[in-house]
User: What shape does this take?
Amino acid sequence: NQDLFLRDDINIIVATIAFGMGIDKSNVRFVVHMTLPKNIEGYYQETGRAGRDGLASTALLFYSAGDLIKLRSFAEIDGNEEQSKVMLEKLQIMADFCETYTCRRKYLLNYFGEQTKEQCGNCDVCTSTYETIDATKPAQMILSAMARLDRQFGANYLIQLLRGSKSEKIWEEHTWLKTYGVGKAYSKAEWSYMIREFLQLKVIQKSQGNYPVLGFTEKSRDVLKGLAKVEIRKLEIQEERTKTVEKASDIAFEKDLFELLKTTRKQLADEQGVPAFVIFSDATLLELAAYLPQDENELFQISGFGESKVQKYGMTFLEEITAYCKINRLEGRIDEKKGKPKPKRKAKSKSRSTGQTHSESFELFKQGMGIEEIAKARKLSSNTIETHLAHFIALGEIGINDFVEMKKRREIEDVISRKGMGMLAPIKNELGDEISYGDIKMVIAHLENLQSLN
Assistant: This one.
């Protein structure tokens, strides 16, 4: 592949950074970063692979604020606090480069000590126009809240405070502050976006480390007193789910649910060491996302579900489907399905209710057995057992502390506050390998229990 690429027999090569830096090819027209580089120095050198013949070339970087969570853990060096601090600072500067809406070439040149005021007129910032809005009032809200909290809290806590959250994480004494609930007119997504903009404008600043807190800057006082105006780019808020369904094979289906079910299928396949299609085909998942079965009887009308697979995987997929329907206020559509007759079930299956299989797992848990032990004893996947026990966490019959430690809980809850509870995959992608899908399910169940109490 390398030889073909160097000979121009192929136009694209996908490679690691180390391989890419070894490419000595003058007519590379594009360098695409699929993940965030760790520092500006690396990014500068890597994009320098493009256009070495002097002709116009393009550098494209895909960036999400969630990338920082994963990279922060990589940046820290055990036993070397000073070096870790340097690495984290460089990573934050790289993130600032991605989020800035000043000329990117100017940002790079200034970073390397070349002070220039000229705009390049060529980067995405320079060639784009943005509609701005006056955000002085929300900026004053958050600065006022920070002052009353003595600046000891992170962005997520401040958002919850400003929106008047009933979460148990909010300190009782803070609910009496004047700033409690003053920002409920803005959604969590809007507040998260505005805080990122305020950070870029140096209206506020963020400390380093795994649990950063927000602090004041030189601009903060003027903004708080109304002596300075704050303008930010207008945010077009995306709806939490795609209201228009996708169509494939002449079946209209819920795209987000389909992706969620694929993630669940892959997890089951990985646990059993088999290819994903052995669990279910894409066609089966497509029908699940289209007809939204609500119980085991309805599952039998989905292609690919027989007696064995309903017993083995039914509840796992039903939990995902019913949760999705509840969040998005959808009803089952099994009546719209044609073609597969409803089969007669075996007698033993008729006597087995939805609650019974959950209860069996619950009883074994109360006897002191762990998730893996229960799974082995019942000949089910650990994923299924986690789903069963999460059900009882949501009911308040099991405590979350039996499964997820406080540090992990806080990390998961922070991501959930931004991503919502509708899909597991986006939450997992931000959290990395140390936190499992099971951990996320348990925390979501815990939050559902708290919501029911409120």
